[in-house]
Amino acid sequence: MNIESLIKENVCTAIEKLYDKKIQPQQIQIKQIPKHLEGDYSVITFPFAKLLSQKPNEIAAALAPQLLEQTTFLANATAVGPGFCNLSIGDAYWTSFVKEVIQSEAYGFHTPNNETVLVEYSSPNTNKPLHLGHIRNNLLGYATAEILKAAGFTVKKVQIINDRGVHICKSMLAWQRWGDGETPESSGLKGDHLVGKYYVAFEKHFQEEYAAWQQQPAAKSLAIQWLSDEVVINRLKKNLEKKGKASSEDALVVYFFKEVYKNKYFNEYSVLGGEAKKMLQQWEEGDTAVLDLWNTMNQWVYDGFETSYKDLGVDFDQLYYESKTYLRGKQLVVDNLEQQERVFFTKEDGSVWIDLSDAKLDEKVVLRKDGTSMYITQDIGTATLRYEDYKMDRMVYVVANEQDYHFKVLFETLDRLGYEFAKKCHHLSYGMVNLTTGKMKSREGTVVDADHLLADIIADVQQESEQRQKLNDLTVDQKKSVWKQIALGALKFYILKVEPKKTMIFDPQQSIELQGQTGPYIQNAFVRTQSVQRMVLEKALKLSTFSSYALTEVEKDILVLIHELPAVVLKAAKAYNPSDVAHYLYDLAKEYHKFWGSTTIIDIENTAATSFRIALSKAVAVALQNAAKMLGISMPERM
């Protein structure tokens, strides 16, 4: 039982003894007392005034001596101010708590609560390798799933692989045109990198085609016609000027072709666009040659993804493929149209929509006039399929904030279709992540992919490590293992310490520093706990009991932090916010580093102090390791 529960239980007992009234633990309010004030926890007595027909200060005055009389874990209890009973926890409680922590490998993990949660993350397109944005998605998804597990939920990690659509056909078409039979084996490239190369190639050739078309009289006429709309142009000029961008006529023409007309040109006029769309149609019709190419190139990507996932240390319980689920949502819509109480309706052109205006989400198309499905339709079908598979109580979608509106529509639609789990669906919306060099664009080939980024961080860690010469007695393979642990810890902590909804900039060099809010700083605290245990063996120390040991201030601060881990886990799980655990790790590491620098841990003259501090170091190691595990960070014993 944690200290807050223990206090509440004893307050209930004390109130009954003093006033012959029963109260429940959930009625009791407790807050931690700031460090600079005396005491550890304060019981607020204002809520009891009406029930007990007593003033809050009178209740506090009666409660303090009663709690001291009936408990053994309190060192002091004092009535303070108009209605507070301040409690100081005795050292005996904390020394006993240390023993509990080091005897429990699962400290911080809660018992099962019989609720199932699906967490969807990653869900990449099969036309390019994973990049920095995917890294944030994967790390957030994995950490959220592991935190939910630690909080007692049964968790299933899933993803939907976007393996169909015109974007996939772009890579396929480019490989057909310019690939000359290149394969991962012949090129030496990972499969996902090879396919991504042709996705970039398609965009390059499309841009050349589009640029040539822009010089045609018909294109220039369209731009002039668009510029003649004074209302639109004046509004656009204001927006561009507000962002510090050029708003001259030439700049507006560039904007028109880049932002306004590009998709229309691709869909209606482009030769390459037409061929890509024709390939998609052939795929949907089951053309053997197209399906064979699609299977071959997708497998290249799947193999590449598997390597990247393994390197990142993330995993999945089940994979869903859009190519196998996309018809599910379409059939659901068609079936609903035949029901008396319909959610969807058909417009004159044959397209099918849902009206969500009363939920301030407008109308949303779910089937095009040609009968093909939209992304929202596919997501509806996939969600219902998952419910059949797992009967989950809730589902978490880890997707960037660009899709905020999409998920509002999805959850509202599922709710109107009568799916109870829709009310417990959550969109874990996260901000973009950029490098210090700026934004990344997949189609233009300016993306920093996950594989190369991780390799660069490992190389930086190796360079720093070899300069410090702390691992000279290890084998090459042992060193590589440590370097990878540190690099992954640096990457994961740097990304997960930022609250998901915030946009962030990733600085690889800053992430590996040994000082400040970094993964290596936290790992180094764990390394220090292990060096203490090695000293015990090297010096063959004889340890004693420490039940009556008097704690120092820094030792108590550490124990209070260790004590908070189970509550931090519940808080992070409730908010789907791994940064809560990351900040906890930093706070605990910082206190232990402080303890390390200010305390003689191995004190030959004082065996009780030595024994307690060794046990405290073990407890810190347990808390650090378990909390870090929830973020997917492993702890090296040396670095």
List the main descriptive attributes of the protein structure presented here.
57% helix; 14 strands; Isoleucyl-tRNA Synthetase, Domain 1; 639 residues; 11% strand; alpha/beta; Gyrase A, domain 2; single chain
Describe the protein's topology:
Elements: H1 3-19, E1 29-32, E2 41-44, H2 49-52, H3 56-70, E3 74-80, E4 84-89, H4 91-102, E5 116-120, H5 132-150, E6 154-161, H6 166-178, H7 184-187, H8 191-213, H9 217-227, H10 230-242, H11 249-260, H12 262-268, H13 271-284, H14 288-312, E7 318-321, H15 322-337, E8 344-346, E9 352-355, E10 363-367, H16 375-390, E11 394-400, H17 404-416, E12 425-430, E13 433-435, H18 450-468, H19 476-496, E14 504-506, H20 508-511, H21 519-538, H22 553-575, H23 579-598, H24 607-630
Parallel strand pairs: 5-6, 5-11, 6-7, 11-12, 13-14
Antiparallel strand pairs: 1-2, 2-4, 3-4, 8-9, 9-10
Helix pairs in contact: 1-3, 4-24, 5-22, 6-8, 6-13, 8-14, 9-11, 12-13, 15-16, 18-19, 21-23, 21-24, 22-23, 22-24, 23-24
Offer a concise description of the structure.
By secondary structure, the chain is α/β, with parallel strands linked by helices. Among the domains are: 87 residues, Gyrase A, domain 2 (2-Layer Sandwich); 151 residues, no CATH class; 173 residues, Isoleucyl-tRNA Synthetase, Domain 1 (Orthogonal Bundle), CATH 1.10.730. The protein is built from 24 helices and 14 strands.
